[in-house]
Each structure stands twice: as structure tokens, then as C-alpha cells.
Amino acid sequence: MQLLSVNVGRPRTVEWNGRTITTAIFKQPVAGPVALAGVNLAGDQQADLTVHGGPDKAVYAYDGAHYDAWRALLPEWTDWSPGLFGENLTTEGLLETEVRVGDVYGLGTARLRAVQPRQPCYKLNVRFDDGGMAARFARLNRPGIYFRVVEPGTVQAGDALVLLEQAPTTITIQYLSQLILSRTTVLEPAQLAELLTMPHLPIWLKQNLTSR
Length: 212
Prior knowledge:
- The protein has 212 residues and is of the alpha+beta class.
- Helices cover 24% and strands 29% of the residues.
- The protein has one domain (2-175): PK beta-barrel domain-like (M1 Pyruvate Kinase, Domain 3, Beta Barrel), CATH 2.40.33.20.
- It has an eight-stranded mixed sheet. A three-stranded antiparallel sheet has the order 6-5-12, with no helix packed on it.
């Protein structure tokens, strides 16, 4: 597993569909070591802190394999530069089907814990100038991974991603995404109990799943 690109961006205001929107989804690759601490990479910010950013969404990773899938679905799109999906980390070999909720990875001198999948919002529509993009993103169920910063450090393209601590669960980031997106799914008591006792699952997700 490897880090292909580090991408950052600050909020900008754009016009889309007759609306003025402030968003930080337009990320750009940066070269060299980048400091990672607290809830941000150096040079990165979020526009709407009510739904983006914070400890449980400090760093967003999206794998290069997903770019290949999207190229087949969006042949008219031409700019496939890293950061296109708003991710901070464009990775190779870090797939939601294999990463468990709570897994800890070493990256550069930092340590990151996988905590939840991305839930797409209309900002993806803005980024691709396509009103149906967020819905397609959800259907494809390649959500990417939000990480919490366990230990600050510096990261840069070319760094290896190393699994340091495997969480004691079989629940992967992709499976959790399926549960969230399938809002009519009724969870079995044993499954719900496991989810509710997971120490690293965000509180809002536990509340969401309990409401089933």
C-alpha cells in the first residue's frame, strides 16, 4: 500500500446552477513533506464544519483503483488529477473492502485510524458540474475512508501505508457504508450490539444505526 498524492485546498466560492456555493472540494496535489496534526493537513481547510472536518473526518483517503472505475463511467471527463474527489490522500491498495473500522495505519511519521466511510453530498455535483454525481457515487459504493489522527507527523507522496493495529472486528468500511446507505435495513441484535460497542465508531453513526 502506498500514498500516491497529498492533496489540499482552502474554501472557494463558485457559482453553480444559479447558486453561490462555498466549498473546499477543489483539492490540488502538493509536493514534499506535509505536516498533519489535529484535524487538518497543512494548507487544507473545510468550508462547512457542521458536516465536514473535525476529529472523525480529519483526513479523507480515496484509492486510485476507484479512478479506473470512474473513467469507465465518465468517459467525457478528461482531468483525472489526484484530489478530484476531494480526497486529501490518493492511495494505492487501500480498499474499503479490506480496511476495518478501527484499523490503525502508519503513514510517514503519522498514525491514522480508519473510522468511517464518506457520505456523498451535493458538493460532488458541483465538482463534476453534474447534478447526478452524488447519487452515482452512493450507488457505486466506493466511498473512500475517513481517518482520525492518532499521532501527528509528516506525510508525502511515495510513503508506504502500513497496517500497525488491526481492529478486533470483521466490519469493514465498505460494509458500514452499505448499512448507512440502505436505510431500510433492520439490523440483527447481535450485529447492532457489536457496532454499539466499537470504541472508534463515531457517536452520530451509533445513533443513526440504533434508530433502525
